[in-house]
Amino acid sequence: MAGEPQADCLFCKIVAGEVPATIVHETDTTVAFRDINPQAPTHVLVIPKAHHRDAAALAEAEPQVAADVLRAARTIAADEGVESTGYRVVFNTGPGAGQTVFHTHAHLLGGRGLEWPPG
């Protein structure tokens, strides 16, 4: 069921404290941690604590929490010192877009030039 923790979800396990992660920010509705395979000097994943398959599902079910994810990303960008130089927030939605963990997550990337178009 949407919103409920999933036993086989890596990010649900991080939220529950069952899997270690380098947490950099936490709110009532979100948690953010460093990506284990960083693609930029700053690469943080921002997730809702509630399980939703992807960004579209989160926006449909809990638009306020989707906004919380973006607010957290902005706060982390400031804390990490990349807000003034620029940063990117990316949601991969579906396997064709590169989503490999099916729990909504935003990639916050910064600290280097981010060309367009990406990958």
TrEMBL record:
Organism name: Streptomyces lycii
Taxonomic lineage from the root: Bacteria, Bacillati, Actinomycetota, Actinomycetes, Kitasatosporales
Gene3D superfamilies (UniProt xref): HIT-like
Motif (Histidine triad motif): 103-107
Domain HIT: 10-119
Family matches, as CDD domains: PKCI_related (cd01276)
Protein name, as recorded: Histidine triad nucleotide-binding protein
InterPro entries, per database record: Histidine_triad_HIT, HIT-like, HIT-like_sf
PANTHER family, per database record: HISTIDINE TRIAD HIT PROTEIN
